[in-house]
Backbone:
């Protein structure tokens, strides 16, 4: 971690002609494999070089950014820094997932889409999804046997997928559910198949692997199902209150109309971007509560005193302890892990020159645990969310949902979901952690525990 002088040094030493400092010629290369298996350790070592650090990977020239002010410059300077889509690595896949969805479009196309989709994720519209969140959580608890040992990360993954599909498609998918599940798992399946994490793809040793037919079949089946869903909605739009209907409804009174291809790509984008991220937020929240009994007691007490039953949208603003616990969990274990950008023209960052084409890495997990911004950063202290140094802390010292124009469109959806699920669980079930309280963490498509989080449940 950069010490407190580093920022000043960087400002003093940096000149717009120089590239940021970094491990020259990559002495770390020999160890890259080891480091990338433990991304947090790797980026902490990089941060020793300063707040903007040049690191050269075999295919990629990158700068890792550790200072919140520079992170703000990158996230807010979206005309210069576009999202990096790993184009250089595209040859490694023969398939693109949702190229016209919100996470892949750029420039005016993205802007128009975002403007169109934003109202569908506003607080007012989201209230309608409250009952889907309650029902799915209660169904999960009902299916648990008292005393059963569960793999929490898997149960939470199924739960968040079920809530998303109900909110996007609003009806019992019946036999079609498996098609949706397979498609939502697709990027992870691709990553599993390569055996490498997102960060490891930067390595030279990855021999391109052709995608297996099995996986393109999953996407073909998804495509066909979505086409059918769109047809069904067009035939009977009044019957449903879901995101798909909202996308079609707007066709009439909006100057911009979405093609079926775009609708398809947005649906798969929401499934992928909103499913595992929220599941990991829940898994890490519960892991932290299992290690911190006082916090767990406070969440339980709040759920019992503030709620008569499952939460309704009107209750959510009263669940302040739950909110702090979740936000503190997102600090220690930010599910997105790292954000990626690309400088589309030459620019300057922190006084250093950033050539056009440089990839920019924003490692949330390193910035979120920097002791310049957080006291005892490794400790789980939900109370800090309200008080400690929050006024003088720079804006982008904490950015689990990103920031600027590409800030997570599902942020309110995710927070609402977490504030439904956590108190329902706290009211209804007791947990005993069976697996390691401090599992290693790996950076896959999301930040994940390297081993399953197992808990024994006792129903109340
Ligand atoms: C705890 C849960 C979640 C976390 C931590 C999270 C995190 C993030 C982050 C960090 C970004 C910014 C990426 C960047 O700037 O490169 C992002 C963008 C995005 N997220 Fe989320 N997300 C979560 C849940 C959701 C949900 C539930 C949905 C959809 C229902 C969703 C849909 C999206 C989309 C579509 C984008 C791209 C937005 C744009 O570029 O305009 N996310 N998310």
Residues:
């Amino acid at each position: 971690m950069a010490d407190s002088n580093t920022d000043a040094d960087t400002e003093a030493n940096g000149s717009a002609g120089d590239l940021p400092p970094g491990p020259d010629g990559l002495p770390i290369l020999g160890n890259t494999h080891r480091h990338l298996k433990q991304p947090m350790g790797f980026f902490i070592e990089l941060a020793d070089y300063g707040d903007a650090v040049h690191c050269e990977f075999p295919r990629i020239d990158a700068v890792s950014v550790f200072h919140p002010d520079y992170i703000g410059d990158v996230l807010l300077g979206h005309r210069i820094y576009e999202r990096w889509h790993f184009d250089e690595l595209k040859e490694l896949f023969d398939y693109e997932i949702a190229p016209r969805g919100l996470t892949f479009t750029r420039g005016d196309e993205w802007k128009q889409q975002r403007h169109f989709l934003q109202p569908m994720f506003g607080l007012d519209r989201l209230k309608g999804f409250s009952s889907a969140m309650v029902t799915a959580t209660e169904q999960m608890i009902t299916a648990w046997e008292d005393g059963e040992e569960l793999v929490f990360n898997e149960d939470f993954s199924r739960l968040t997928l079920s809530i998303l599909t109900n909110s996007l498609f609003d009806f019992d998918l019946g036999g079609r559910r498996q098609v949706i599940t397979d498609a939502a798992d697709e990027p992870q399946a691709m990553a599993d198949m390569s055996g490498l994490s997102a960060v490891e793809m930067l390595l030279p040793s990855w021999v391109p692997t052709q995608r297996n037919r099995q996986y393109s079949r999953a996407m073909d089946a998804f495509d066909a199902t979505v086409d059918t869903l769109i047809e069904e909605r067009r035939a009977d739009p009044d019957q449903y209150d879901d995101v798909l209907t909202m996308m079609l409804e707007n066709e009439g009174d909006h100057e911009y109309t979405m093609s079926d291809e775009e609708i398809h790509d947005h649906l798969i984008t929401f499934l992928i971007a909103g499913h595992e991220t929220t599941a990991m937020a829940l898994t890490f929240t519960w892991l932290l509560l299992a290690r911190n009994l006082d916090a767990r007691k406070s969440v339980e007490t709040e759920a019992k005193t503030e709620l008569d039953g499952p939460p309704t949208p009107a209750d959510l603003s009263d669940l302040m302890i739950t909110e702090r616990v979740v936000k503190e969990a997102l600090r220690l274990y930010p599910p997105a892990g790292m954000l990626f950008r690309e400088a589309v023209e030459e620019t300057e960052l922190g006084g250093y020159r950033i050539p056009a084409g440089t990839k920019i890495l924003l490692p949330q997990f390193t910035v979120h645990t920097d002791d310049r911004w957080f006291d005892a950063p490794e400790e789980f202290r939900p109370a800090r969310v309200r008080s400690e140094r929050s006024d003088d802390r720079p804006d982008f010292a904490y950015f689990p949902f990103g920031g600027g124009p590409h800030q997570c469109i599902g942020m309110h959806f995710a927070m609402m979901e977490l504030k439904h699920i956590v108190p329902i669980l706290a009211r209804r079930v007791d947990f005993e952690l069976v697996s390691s309280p401090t599992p290693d963490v790996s950076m896959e498509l999301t930040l994940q525990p390297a081993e399953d989080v197992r808990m024994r449940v006792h129903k109340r």
Q: What stands out?
A: The longest strand covers residues 338-343. The chain has 17 helices and twelve strands. Residues 83, 102-103, 114, 269-270, 273-274, 277-278, 281, 335-336, 339, 400-402, 406, 408-410, 413-414 surround protoporphyrin IX containing FE (CB under 6 Å).
